[in-house]
User: Which sequence fits this backbone?
């Protein structure tokens, strides 16, 4: 099952979301070795395989939240699970061009 994003209605298009690069609470500046991150990445691979580019789309914006070395900072996710204001800005800016295209605005 793909969880739909609330309020995102694209006529004729599948709605969905992906899992953010979350991490366990006990690791400061978590990296790719974090077990929750690995589970999320594997789950996102399943979502990616479901995408057909016609009715179901997959947009991997997870790397947008990470530092160059692959770490996740508390500036983006203060509790390493929920986005901060800056994190939501990154999310919005990352999906906007694709949403505009899918909605026929560009």
Assistant:
């Amino acid at each position: 099952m793909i969880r739909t994003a609330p309020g995102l209605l694209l006529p004729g298009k599948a709605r969905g979301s992906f899992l953010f690069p979350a991490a366990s609470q006990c690791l400061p500046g978590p990296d790719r070795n974090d077990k929750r991150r690995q589970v999320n990445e594997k789950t996102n691979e399943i979502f990616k395989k479901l995408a057909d580019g016609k009715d179901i789309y997959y947009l991997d914006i997870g790397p947008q939240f990470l530092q160059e070395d692959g770490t996740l900072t508390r500036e983006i996710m203060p509790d390493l699970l929920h986005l901060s204001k800056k994190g939501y800005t990154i999310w919005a800016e990352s999906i906007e061009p694709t949403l505009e295209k899918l909605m026929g605005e560009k």
About this structure: Residues 1-11, 23-29 have pLDDT under 50 and may be disordered. Residues 35-102 form one domain.
